[in-house]
Amino acid sequence: MNPFGTEITTDDIVETLSFFDTWEERYKYIIDLGKQIPALPDALKTEDRLVKGCQSQVWIESQKQDGRLFFDADSDAHIVKGLLGVVLAAFNGKTPEQVLDFNIEQYFADLDLLRHLSPTRGNGLRAMVKRIQAFASA
User: Which of the 8 DSSP states describes residue 54?
Assistant: First the structure.
């Protein structure tokens, strides 16, 4: 199980990113976040776990334990795996209701993130969020 959402929170990420002066430093931090996500076993990198709409390959696996959702995720791109960390901090270990109620657009605005991503990366980020929200709605 990865630490995002349980040990590393959205507040932690917002606060840490605010310390950096440049987006180059922020990108390095985001990439470092991705390095903390355990690799998804190749056996779980299947078509049904693949997130459509991402420029890179992204896989998300979900499990429900004691009424809470837990996600394992991976990507073939370092920056995208870091973006997964940003997203997982918002949703991992939360109830389906908390996932659906979380204001992800405000979180992205607090990070000033979408303005600094290419349109295709921004679309991929939203595709990851929609996939997780779909798990919560099921």
Answer: -
